[in-house]
Specification:
The chain has 289 residues and is α+β, with helices and mostly antiparallel strands. The chain folds into 2 domains: 90 residues, lambda repressor-like DNA-binding domains (434 Repressor (Amino-terminal Domain), Orthogonal Bundle); 175 residues, Beta-Lactamase. The protein has a 5-stranded antiparallel beta sheet. The N and C termini lie far apart (77 Å).
Length: 289
């Protein structure tokens, strides 16, 4: 019997690896009930196929090591839905002949254009900030820093709107409707992410959040999609108390990869006065330092 060709060996190893990861997945972490005689570990092929956007037959062939050519986008989707670690993700890409996924460098976000920063500052004391296509927070004004005092000290790789909303206890404590808010955020983000679902930054964000937040994993697997619409937002600030805003989103025509998010004080509320006092207190504290 002739030895298997290198490509055949890689396909068989890929199939065996994916099958083992699927069989070890904990069903409850996907929001799925036990199957069979109360089995709580192991996903069905059709479940991973559905989550990854491929047919059951095609995914079965993938696990069987058949002579098929999965695209990088499909492998990225399988990696996300099997919740592979970064090294595991690179491993299956290598087995399929692709280069490892670029990793986010632990550096500050790319500088936001100066005129965008000026716009944010002009909105003070209303909180406003700018996010990238993967919702990394690249710039903010005094109002936003008064609302979230720790934003400047958050490590750059973690300064992401989705990540903070799902994993930061301070942010969660300020949202009286946290469950509704995070699902709305996720539906907005998913609508925007469709055009770059195969990009490394998006895959890395989803993979990390799956590992760090069971709430994110459950909400992400619901596949809700909704275009952003301006809406009312309420925060319960530990110093200023209840703050009522209207949330708006702008896209600069000369910086279309950025979105500006502004929380404008709700008409008829005293939020503008409360925010002005918060900003004044923060500025006084900075001057004292």
């Amino acid at each position: 019997m002739e030895p298997a060709a290198p490509a055949d060996a890689r396909r068989k190893e890929l199939g065996a690896f994916l099958r083992k990861k699927r069989e070890r997945a904990v069903r409850a972490e996907y929001g799925l009930p036990p199957v069979g005689r109360g089995r709580v570990v192991g996903l069905r092929r059709e479940e991973i196929a559905f989550l990854s956007g491929v047919s059951v037959t095609w995914y079965t062939w993938l696990e069987q090591g058949r002579d098929i050519n999965p695209s990088r986008q499909v492998l990225d989707a399988v990696a996300v839905n099997l919740r592979l670690t970064a090294p595991e993700h690179d491993y299956i890409l290598g087995l399929s002949g692709f280069a490892p996924a670029p990793r986010e460098a632990p550096a500050a976000p790319e500088p936001v254009p100066e005129h965008v920063q000026h716009l944010l500052e002009a909105l003070d004391p209303a909180p406003a900030f700018a996010v990238t296509s993967t919702w990394d927070i690249g710039a903010w004004n005094r109002g936003y820093e008064a609302l979230f005092p720790g934003i400047a000290s958050v490590p750059a790789p973690d300064r992401n709107l989705l990540r903070l909303t799902f994993t930061d206890p301070y942010v969660r404590g300020m949202l009286p409707d946290w469950e509704v808010t995070v699902r709305s955020f996720l539906a907005d983000y998913r609508a925007e992410a469709g055009s770059h679902a195969d990009r490394a930054a998006h895959v890395e964000l989803v993979s990390r959040l799956r590992q760090d937040s069971e709430d994110f994993a459950r909400a992400w697997d619901d596949h809700e999609v909704r275009r952003f619409a301006s809406r009312a937002r309420t925060f319960l600030h530990p110093v200023a108390g209840r703050l009522d805003f209207e949330q708006h989103q702008l896209v600069p025509s000369d910086a279309p990869t950025l979105h500006i998010v502004a929380y404008l004080p709700a008409p008829g509320s005293d939020t503008r006065e409360r925010m002005a006092e918060l900003v004044r207190q923060a500025s006084a504290a900075d001057a004292a330092d």
